[in-house]
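Q: Hi! First time asking for a complex rather than a single chain. Here are the components, and I think there are two in total. Is that enough to go on?
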Amino acid sequence: MPESLSFGIDPITAHAWNKDRTKLAISPNSPEVHIYHFQRGEWKLEEVLKEHDLKVTGIDWAPNTNRIVTCSADRNAYVWTQSEEKKWKPTLVLLRINRAATCVRWSPLENKFAVGSGARLISVCYFEKENDWWVSKHIKKPIRSTVTCLDWHPNDVLLAAGSTDFKVRVFSAYIKEIEERPVSTSWGSKMPLGLMMAEFSNSTNGAGGWVHSVNFSSSGDRIAWVGHDSSISVADASKGMAVCVIRTDFLPFLACLWVSENRLIAAGHGCCPMLFEVNETGKVHFAGKLDASLKKETSGVSAMKKFQSLDRQARTETNDTSLGTLHQNAITSVCLHTGNKANATKFSTAGVDGLLAIWDFNNLESAMRGLKFN
Amino acid sequence: MPWDSSIYFRFIDVYDYNVAYSEESCGSLIWLFRPLGIDQSIWGTDNIEALKTVLRNAPISSRNQMVKDAALNVVMQVLLSMKSSQIEEAVNALDRDHLDILMKYIYRGFETPSEGSSGQLLAWHEKVHAVAGVGCIVRVLTDKKRV
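A: Yes, that's all I need. Here is the structure of the assembled complex.
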């Protein structure tokens, strides 16, 4: 059974872990960020970060430099560092956007971060030592609508962005002031800031939906995204940008995460994390549901079972409205917990039901009969 | 004259309608002539082939509302003329893309109900949903191009 932590009734809009997973930062659908600390067997609220004026839309925690970056609908982002007294102190970042920020991600080397926004641009921010402040550079062309999700390539330069204009684009976020020229990758060799390396459409014949989440695989060659048309797609730069899309039977996914070079997790409105596998030819297929809850999901419950459950739960009414999954409402975010994108053993999901669950592949293996994990 | 026949009264008389002969509308115009082929098979035994044909030629990319309406009428004829026992077999014979298009027509059919049509369409909806899940219904809502 996955470990689950309840943070009250408010939806969890974003969550992030510190390096050793003893601390958790969550935003309960408000302008606040709550930091929880795992002490003596339980999660205690350590501090509340109150600086934003409007709802916090994204949180990311840099594991090595131990800095938290938060972005909000108030068009601001703050970088939080811990002082000697263990209090978190905010530093304002000038994003120079005139619409809400939607998502934020530290780069792999933690020397910069990217913020997506409704201003149809991405702000790539880095720390300028001379003036002691965070400066942003904009990636604008050819984004035509709100940027909903971001993910960095392991080379610390390339950035994937999904948008509500039904497109997924890979940009170069090379900041010459703070880093060396990157070596060429399967996405291209010349990478000046703002150059679009690749563009993928989440729509065929005008169909499609908003891109909710985008994720680079651990090698950086593959990129996966999920769209509101209940589709999941994988593109492979090492195979000439070949794309494989599957339009699933499930409700749309809101988050996706690679857990090995060939396996990815997707979760969303269906309230259940799903496992997808990519074979050698690049074809994606559904591998199984990871929520092996005992309660039946189908509506075909027999009369006998109905009265039994009534009796067991001491109810008098027959309407049992709880879902057959652990999460009782949509899952909004998925984070790596233990391992890395090449080999993950645990991942966490947070949802609109205020629940944060940690899923362990080793436990799931026995529950999922017939599936083999390498 | 086939245009006098009662079943064709609902189709556009192409001689009255002035259409710019662009590449797109030429392909869509097939819809005005195709009924001659499809309606024969309605009275034949191969309803499933008729369904496959109408879905394969669905004018999704067309911007011509009259063509789309004509197509809708033909699809409705096919859907409503099939017996309830045949629905499951027909749905199993379709692939995912065609099921998505079929679901779009089912919802479109709900919008303009005729005598007894909604009941039959509900039977179709149940069978398509059993095979293609909720994802199929989500795509009816998210697709910009309507049937």
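A: The interface with chain A takes residues 60-61, 96, 100, 132-136, 138-139, 142-145 of chain B (CB under 8 Å). Let me know if you'd like any chain examined more closely.
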